[in-house]
Fold this protein.
Amino acid sequence: MRVLLILAMLIGVHAGPLPTAAWAQSAADNDAITRVLLAETDHFFARNYDAWAATFVHVPSATQAWNNADGTYVYRLGWETIGARIREFMKNNPTPDRTPLHRENFTFRHYGNAAFVTFDKYMGDRKTAKPIREVRVVERVGSDWKIVCVVAL
């Protein structure tokens, strides 16, 4: 046992510490993820379906869920369902929503080519609007980050 401990210590000293990239993604990744998350909501509010859809991974496991003011909730599973419902919503509500948006308090937890992100979103006057706690799961697709899960509480 003592030999294994000494051997492990020597290997550790020889190899040196693991680079930061082995533990977390770069600030550039966090910036790219933030841009995608902001773009998703901005495109939705602008009623730009194609640009909105381009921010998502189009897979059967894609998920979208949120609470409604009356205590009910919406849960959608699968890109085909999500995409069809949002396309229908935008067709029936084509006027862009110009409600001011403010997003802050981003936190990131990376898992290789995926990340879990939380943030607060305020719709309307930042001083009086209640925060909506947002959760996103994103995946790297090629060199781009795409959303695979949206939850708004």
